[in-house]
C-alpha cells in the first residue's frame, strides 16, 4: 500500500529543505547512519528495529557508552529474534512431522484394506473355481450315465433282434442306420466332455505392490508443495517482523529528529548530523514503500492463488459427486445383473431337477419294458416248445393211423380166408379203433385250435415288441435332445460365470478410481486449510501493526504538544487562528510531514 504524499506534507518538506539549505547544508553532505555502523538484521533485507547510531564529534565518552549500550541492546534483540525464529521453525517442523505421520498412517490403513479386499477376492475366486470343477464333474457323470444308457439300449435291441431274425428283420435293418447315425454324435459329445473339464483358468489378480511407485511419486509431489507452502509463512513472518521494526525505528527516528532540531536551534554545528539523519530517514522511507509494495503484490498473488484453489476444490467436488453417481449407477446395474443371473441359475437348477426326474422315470419305464419283454420271450419259447410237442404227437398219430390202415388191409386180405372166425373180433377191434380215431381227431382239432390261438398270441406279442421298439427309438431321440439341451445349459452357465468375472473386474477398477479421488480430495482440503491459516495469521499481524501505528501516532502528538520546536512553530504559524482556512490535522499526514523529502 503506497502512501502518496499530500500537498501539505510536500509544502512542509520544501520548507524544511529550504531551511537546511539556508543553514549551508546541501543534499550531497547528507549521509546515512547505516554507512557508519551496519549490523546484520535477522531477516537480512529489512532495516534494524533499533534507533540509528548517532555519531557527532562533540559527544565524547558519554556518546561511546551510549553507543556500546545500544549495540548490546541491538545484539540482545537480534538474539531474541533468532530464538523466536528458531522456535517457529521447530514448531513448523513438528507440525510437518505430525502431518506426515497421519498421512503415512492413512496410507498404511488403505494398503491393509486393499490387501484384505484382494484376499477376499482370492477366496471368492477359489470358491468359484471349486464350484466350477464340481459342475464339470457332475457333467462328466451325466455324460457317462447317458453313455451307459445308450449301451444298454443297444444291447437290448441286439438281444431282441437275435432270437427273432425272421419276423423282425425289417425293423432291425431300419434301426441300424439310426444307431450308426447316433454313434458319431455321442462320440462327439464324449470328446467335448473330455475336453471340457480341463484345468480351470484362474483369473489374474492384480498385485497391490505394483501401485507403490505411483503412490511414492504422489507423496514426493505433496512434499514439494508443502515445503513451498511452509516457506511462505516464514517469509510472511519475516516481513511482518521487519515492518514492526521499521515502524518502531520510524517512531524513534522522528523523536530523535525533533530532539535534534531543538538542539540545532541551540548549536548550529549539528547540521551535518541532521542531514545524515535526514538522508537515512529518506532511504528508510523508500525501503518501507518498496516493502509495502511487495507486500501488496504478494497479497494479491495469494488472493489469486486462493481463488484458483477454491475453483479447483469446487471442480474436485463436482468430479467426486459425478464419480459417486457413476459408482452408484454401476452398483445398481451390478446388483440387477446379479439378481437376474441368480434367477437364471435357479431356473437352470429347476430344469436340471426336472430333467433328472424325467430320466429317472424313463429308467423305470425301460426296466419295466425289459421285464415285460423277458416275460413275453418266456411265453413265446414255451408256446414254441408246446407247438413242437404237438407236431411230434401228430406225426406219431399219423404213423399209427398208417400202421393201422396197413394192418386193416392186411387183415382184409386175410379176412377172405377167415371171415367167419375173425369177423366179430375184427369188427370189434375196428369199432374200437374207430372210436380211438374219432377221439384222436377230436384231440387233433382241439390242438389245432390251441395252435391257432397261440399263433394269434404270438403275432400280438410280435406287434407289441415292434411297438416297444418304436417307443425305445423315441426315448433314444428324447435322450439325445436332452443331452443337447444339457450342453446348451452348460455353455450358458459358463457365459454367465465369465460375465460375473468381467463385472467384478470393472467394479474393482471403479473402487480403485474412487479411492484415488478420495486421496486427492483430502490432499486438496489440507492445502486449502493451510492457506487459510496463513492468510488469517497475516491479517492478524496487519491489524496488530495498525494498532501499534495508531498508538505511536497518539504518543507523538502528545510529545509535539509539549515541545513544538522549530517545525512546531511553523505548524502553529500555518494553522494559527489567523489562517482558519487551513485543512484539519490528520495523524497520518503529520507523520508523513515529519519525513522530509529532499529532491
Task: Give a quick rundown of the structure.
This is Coiled-coil domain-containing protein 102A. It is built from 8 helices and no strands.
Features:
mainly alpha; 599 residues; single chain; 0% strand; 8 helices; rod-shaped
Present the secondary structure layout.
Layout: H1 7-22, H2 61-161, H3 169-195, H4 212-266, H5 271-415, H6 419-562, H7 565-574, H8 587-594
Helix pairs in contact: 1-8, 2-3, 2-6, 3-6, 4-5, 4-6, 5-6
Number of strands: 0
- CA(first)-CA(last) distance: 22 Å
Count of alpha/pi helices: 8
Radius of gyration: 63 Å
Mind describing the biggest β-sheet? Answer: none
Residue ranges: pLDDT <50 for 5 or more in a row?
A: 1-10, 12-17, 19-60, 166-212, 228-241, 589-599
Order of helices and strands: HHHHHHHH
Strand percent estimate: under 5%
Shape: rod-shaped
Class derived from helix and strand content: mainly alpha
- The chain-level mean pLDDT equals 71
If you had to describe this structure to a student in words, what would you say it looks like?
The chain has eight helices and no strands. With 599 residues, it is mostly helical. The longest helix is centred in the middle third of the chain and has 145 residues. Keywords: Coiled coil. This is Coiled-coil domain-containing protein 102A. Pfam families: Myosin_tail_1 (PF01576). It comes from Salmo trutta.
